[in-house]
Amino acid sequence: MTQVSIEEYAVAGRDGGPYAITAGPDGALWFTLVHSGRIGRLVPGGEVATYQLDEPSCRPTVIASGPDGAVWFTEYQAHRIGRISVDGGAVEEFALPTADCAPFGITCGPDGALWFTETAADRIGRITPDGQVTEFPLPVSGAFPSAIAAGGDGALWFALNQAHAIGRITTDGTVSLHPLPTEAAAPVGITAGRDGGLWFVEIAAGQIGRIASDGRITEYPLPDRTARPHAVTTDGSGAAWFTEWGGNRVGRITSDGAIAVYDLPTPGSEPHGIALGPDGALWLALENGALARVVPG
To answer: Which cofactor is recorded for it (predicted)?
Structure first.
């Protein structure tokens, strides 16, 4: 089993709520502080900077690097998409056409736009770097689309948390749905794999899933089915790493389904987002106010 070293770095007070994290185009890590309405930046080995958004209760949630050299994020409570420059923290915010849509997941698409989910409106959205928004309705209601990722097939793939399915949308808006084998699995996080498939996590079922580009789904039960896996990313070797929100752990799954999990140093740290950092380590957003750096040994 691969061994790891884990270090934690305080970036906010315990109520600050680091939630999601991404590697920016500037060699820094960018993260959301969901409870305090701030965006954070950390260069590995350097000092933390945070940027206050105009509305502290906007709940910045998921964050991603954009095609324009900026970092983009969703504002779940304010129903907006935000953009922050990496050379000074200038923020722009874009209102969405559908009221009270609660945007959550966001990713850079293959078409030079950002794609995002609207959890309360059963829609997938697309926003260009200049702020032009298009929305695509899903063929299901109450589905709570959550995380979204660009697949290797030129389409966008997303988790339907309450429809217990994985969705796919092409850049022209054609949607297809793939129900999961496990009932009430409640998928949340999703990420592209190195082999053309996508990895996702089932928070209610305690499983890691993989979906091939043709829709074939494989599920892998975790050692602790109550661990509530939340987010997932891949490393340079093609293995997928995931957070266990309920288990206070980080885990790794290889392409052949071998799973290893590792306890985090601080009890009750509530790990949420995970990303591969510019330094080659895995970085976790811990809602207790810290980021964790995970280095395989």
So the answer is: Mg(2+)
